[in-house]
Amino acid sequence: METEFKLEIVSPEKSFFSNEKVKEVVVPAFEGEMGILKDHISIISFLKPGIIKVVLKDGEESFYVDDGIMEFKDNLLSILSSSIFNTKKIDKNFVETSIKDAESNLASKELSDQNRFLENEKIEVLKSISSN
Amino acid sequence: MASLDDLKKRISSVKSTQKITKAMKMVAAAKLRKAQEGAEKGRPYSDKMNNIILNLSKNIFGKENTPKLLSGSGDNKVHLCVVLTSDRGLCGGFNTNIIKKAKSYFQKILDEGKTLKIITVGSKGFEQLKRFYGDKIIERISFKESKNVNYFDADKVGRIIIEKFQKGEFDICAIFYNQFKNVISQIPQEQQIIPLVSNEKDEAQVEENYEFEPEEDEILSNLLPKNISTQIFKAMLENSASEQGSRMSAMDNATRNAGEMVDKLTIEYNRSRQAAITKELIEIISGAESL
Prior knowledge:
Strand content of chain A: 35-45%
CATH superfamily of the largest domain in chain A: F0F1 ATP synthase delta/epsilon subunit, N-terminal
Strand order of the largest sheet of chain B: 3-2-1-4-5
Number of helices of chain A: 2
Number of domains of chain A: 2
Radius of gyration of chain B: 28 Å
Largest sheet of chain A: 9 strands, mixed
CATH architecture of the largest domain in chain A: Sandwich
Order of helices and strands of chain B: HHEHEHEHEEHEH
Shape of chain A: globular
Largest sheet of chain B: 5 strands, mixed
CATH superfamily of chain B: ATP synthase, F1 complex, gamma subunit
Number of strands of chain B: 6
Shape of chain B: elongated
Helix content of chain A: 25-40%
Structural class of chain B: alpha/beta
CATH class of chain B: Alpha Beta
Number of domains of chain B: 1
CATH class of the largest domain in chain A: Mainly Beta
Strand content of chain B: 5-15%
Number of helices of chain B: 7
Oligomer: heterodimer
């Protein structure tokens, strides 16, 4: 049985990644990580800062996202994100400044609990990238 | 008739102008290709975004806690108009067309006795509007430093708009920009972004029951501000392609006109030179005859 579906990742500037034969995608959805296989129910969800893991026929790809939206419908997974990077090509300087930004955001008192949680997540993920 | 020297100077000055317009045309053509590519690449994002929002709004429609960005503030007294223009001139009717469109809209609003507020993006728009609507302009934004259109800039404009909306400074927001059709035609557009209006042809596509995580209204209230930035980004991309297209055809015309002018002046120059020679010959011959 076919177990592959189509994945499209688009950023405002361009179509970032597109593949017709994807086996599994793990997305950092707002309420926890979510694995998506073929024939998943139609779903719309938000992404929190994290890693998108794409399992292809031959190998894996992973991307870092800051935020975004995902939609799955008729075996087409679309991910929209304004800030997305391939973890292999990510700029070390960018990672460091992002961590610093997030830390300074955390320091401000007006932050809501939800944002505080998101910033913490972000720092954790970014640190794990930079340590690799 | 102008003297030979004057004609010569004019010919060379027109020729050097022609060189400039020709070079500008080439540059615009190269930039156009890039801008057009950008506009095309940017389309899937805004289309998908639109689709998702349509799906969501269909699901949420009629519920009490519809976000204000979707349903509007319930009033339509204060209109905010965002006029997107270029930062540089010499691009034919590009800016004038947007301004013309915007001005007719402004007049309509003012005639209805409503309040008008304007944000100009791009310095040319500000220059053209400040004479008549100077007191209405609440913000002027220019991205002269950015080389290319980027999402970051669009997001900045989007944030300003949303902030003002949340403070209740306006009820309805519309953006003005040029839509790129092809090199010789760009269509000035007026698009309302707050509250969001969906055109009917899109409605037909909406079906399906989605699962949402988190709840619809939460997704929607997060998504709508992003959508505004996306719409502005789309407008900026279309605008930059239009600007280059418009400049290319304007410079093409200018080059051709300069060529015609050089031809005309050259003929005039040759004629008057010949006339001078003939005159001298006649003088010599008649001088010789009289001897």
